[in-house]
Amino acid sequence: MKLNQLLKAIEIQNNQPSTDMDVSGISYHSQKVEEGHLFVCIRGYKTDGHRFLADAASRGAKVAVVEVIQEDVAIPQILVENSRSALAQIAAVYYNHPSEKMKMIGITATNGKTTTSYMANAILEQHALKTGLIGTVNVKNGETSIPSELTTPESLDLQYFLNEMAHNDVSHVSMEVSSAALEMHRVEAVDYDIVSLHNISQEHVDTHGSFERYFEVKSSLIRDASENSFAILNLDDTYSASLIEKTDANVIAFGVNSDKGTIRCKDLDLSTGRAKFTFEILKPFTVDDIEYKPSQFNVELAVPGLHSVYNSMVSIIIGLLNGVPVQTIQQSLKEFTGVPRRFEFIYEDKFKVVDDHFANPGNIKVTLKTIHFMDYNNLHVVYAIRGGRGAKINRDNAEVLANWAGELGIDEVTATSSVSHTTEKDKVTAEELDAFMDVMAEADINVHLYDELPDAINESLNKAVEDDLVLLAGCQGMDYGAGVVLDQLSPEDVKMK
Fold first, then answer.
1. Phi, psi of 64 (to 5 degrees)
2. What distance in Å separates the CA atoms of residue 330 and residue 359, rounded to the nearest whole number?
3. Comparing C-alpha atoms, which of 161, 186, 146 is closest to residue 28?
4. For residue 199, which of 303, 104, 116 has the smallest C-alpha distance?
5. Are 131 and 121 in contact (CB under 8 A)?
6. Which end of the chain is more exposed for a tag (fewer CB within 10 A), N or C?
7. Residue spans of alpha helices (H) in 131-200
8. Residue 165: beta bridge partners?
9. Which of 69-78, 145-154, 370-379 has the lowest mean pLDDT?
10. C-alpha distances out from residue 252 to 2, 197, 216, 276, 377, Å
């Protein structure tokens, strides 16, 4: 592609090099540079691409986009204010704006991005649509998929994946949009048809500097949505609801507790842990040539948890906005078995064992509220203390658990540092352990502390009797928890999803 075609997409702050120059490709990692490439120097959290400009030039880069000119590097350098933004715009032009050729669905939230995107994808697939999926677990292009490296890929990689999907006749793409991706301009040149933000709580504060900045970044997906798109917002979440008047998109607001929006969930039954409810359209809305009038239909979820109700509400609305028939949506949700470690039932016989990633206060509140709705005798909590994330998040998480202790009858917790089941970056520090233990002591909750994950789990399994509930709670430290449980319990009794 000619360089001048790419440069039309960005604002340049210095004199342009020869605009008739041919560019054979684009790269932002110097080791991936090939002869004739345009190299874009981007700044990351840990390193700065400007440090590798000379290396990129030695590997064959013909021209570079930079935020700082390096006089000792001989190739032409195009000066821009923000090279990440420039990369996003250039990549979209290079791949001929692939997002404009498909229905793009952008899903953000503190909790539930992965499950909601998978659930929406399942509904669309059930309608025989050829789909793409981009998120934490994998990148799916029709029938093929590859493991993900980032929740939302770097902008150049994202545009490449979208281009591959467009060439593969994918018609609908469900995409997780992380706060990091929004902050770092990875999705800047994506043309969305549907966006959603259905919850937000304390998370990634270290990355963004404050919760206020985190919300500002996260909500930009909604605030920047076009008037031709739809925004799905949750009236039960104060932050989500606050965006209704701050977007040009057509808003579809829903609630489980609120009946003030376009749609509500009513007659919710969570007694078994798996929800049954009525999806009610309260106000008419139109999309393309389809008019949805006030009406209602029943929904049964195969996946457990109150959070799954909210995720499914978003997914159902996405299905309706894409013309999927109600019966198809109902069938899809009956069959959708979920994403691992999102309130996952891993054993159901004499007692139940639930595995949940218990990542942050918002996630924990919804998990414990779901348990409050369930029928069981005694609750046994096995908690993997969160390592490598600082004392504050461990204190915040512990405080939510302590606040729910009275409601759930929790007077003791089995905790673990998961020493042999975490990587170096996820090791629990003394400060993190102290933060958790201090909150438990203040709440008069007895803690049985183990260094090793299997020891902690085995204690609770040995205590569990008929109709009890065992909760495996925690992030990286609990990733192997389900395997430990299944090794201990008789195979014929284990009901895996």
1. -135, 150
2. 30
3. 186
4. 116
5. yes
6. C
7. 155-167, 179-183
8. none
9. 145-154
10. 43, 11, 21, 22, 39
Q: Which residues contact 109 (CB under 8 A, 6 or more apart)?
A: 116, 196, 197, 198, 199, 200
- Of 14, 25, 113, the closest CA to residue 69 belongs to 14
- Terminal-residue alpha carbon distance, the chain: 48
Q: What share of the chain is helix, strand, coil (3-state, %, to 5)?
A: 40, 25, 40
* CB atoms closer than 10 angstroms to residue 286: 10
CA dihedral 325, 107, 195, 100 (to 10 degrees): -90
Go through 413-434 and write b for each residue having 16 or more CB atoms within 10 A of its CB, e for each that does not: bbbbbbeebbeeebebbeebbe
CB 175 within 8 A of CB 134: yes
**Antiparallel, parallel or unpaired: β 138-141 and 144-147:** antiparallel
Give the SS3 label for residue 351: coil
- Two tokens at 121? 């994808």
How do residues 173-214 score in pLDDT, each as one tens digit? 999 999 989 999 999 999 999 999 999 986 656 667 788 999
Strands 103-108 and 144-147: unpaired
Residue 368 — φ and ψ, nearest 5°?
A: -70, -30
Q: Assess whether pLDDT exceeds 80 at residue 490.
A: no
Mean pLDDT of 298-318: 94
